[in-house]
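Cross-posting from the modeling subforum.

Setting up a comparison between two proteins and wanted a second pair of eyes on the formatting. Protein 1 (sequence, then structure tokens):
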Amino acid sequence: MSEVPTADAQDVRTQACPGGPLLVRGAATWVDSDGIEHPVTRPVVAVCRCERSQRLPWCDGTHKFVTRTAPSVA
């Protein structure tokens, strides 16, 4: 995945949830794999990694019903 958070790099923290989303803390925006910039309006957002969410790039819990595992974050 080529999505990236934007903000002061020191302030942005990410945490991959096993089999679930990527939690992003402190980002101002999120740039998805198509280059579209999404504003972040919360202190912590869950970014979809299974790519099946109906609210991409945000997680909607669909990963709970998908049998394949979410891709790793580099």
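Protein 2 (same layout):
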Amino acid sequence: MDYFGDPAQWLPFTFAMLMGVSILIYVVLDGFDLGVGLLFPFADEDEKDNMIAAIGPFWDANETWLVLAVGLLLVAFPAAHGTILTALYLPVAVMLIGLILRGVAFEFRVKAPLSYKSRWNWAFFVGSLMTSLSQGFMLGMYVMGLTWTLPHVAFALLTAVFLTIGYSFIGATWVIHKAQGNLQLKAIDWAKGGIWGLVLGISAISIATPFVSSRIFDKWFSFPEFLWLSPLPILSAVLVAWLWQMLKTMPFSGDRFSWLPFGAATALWTTAFGGMAYSFYPYVVPEKLTIYESASAPESLFIILVGTIFVLPTILAYTVLAYYVFRGKATELRYD
């Protein structure tokens, strides 16, 4: 059968790829603004204002990618959507509460009387923490096949902690890029601590994933697949070493290339995500449903694809425009 000539083959693959890219963009972009919220307790009041200014123009656009990813899952893979959301109903509810709390705190901390500002700062931190932990827990449960056993829940709790630290790390690299002076120096120290949590998290998932099923084990450790895939862990190790060396020598003279740690962190997240995508393909629900079994009818997918061709470039263009317009160092965030 001609793979690319059969809509029942290439349409599910196309939507799986679009959904994966949307998730990756969300994890990187909303990951850094969640990370900024997680770092709030370590900053003083003026620094918190600067940190909010560093994410203020972007955070709404960042969350759009989560909506797109979940929307694609619902319309393109409805059977998988039902299975995943049913298994993860509780952490999804916690995540939504956290996102709502973050949004409310983000707006109210500026507009509320000064005596209430510290409370909204804590609400912003708690909302960021709830969102990060719940996403990490969902990741762990997904890797373990969405089955609620004590060892699987323990692993999910571990990934919840590591993903939260990973978000704080990429948030710190964003602050390095957008801040100046003492706050930038603090962010460098935060990143030095957070990078090891990210490394431990990636290592834990990388070690556990091949043992979830013999199929995944064979995909990684059979010959010659082992040789073809070896650049992924090697590249990850190189990126970690490069990041650590950069952080030790920052800030650079004249604050040049302050974006490099964030760029390297993004590349590290991308390699980790690519490894996971390779491990689980073609399954959208690990070892239960493939993208082809759970996909909508080709006729429906084609109609959805037409809409996606218009929607996706619009979201991408808006995101790129926001980052271009508000490039450079963060300035004071004002609402008047």
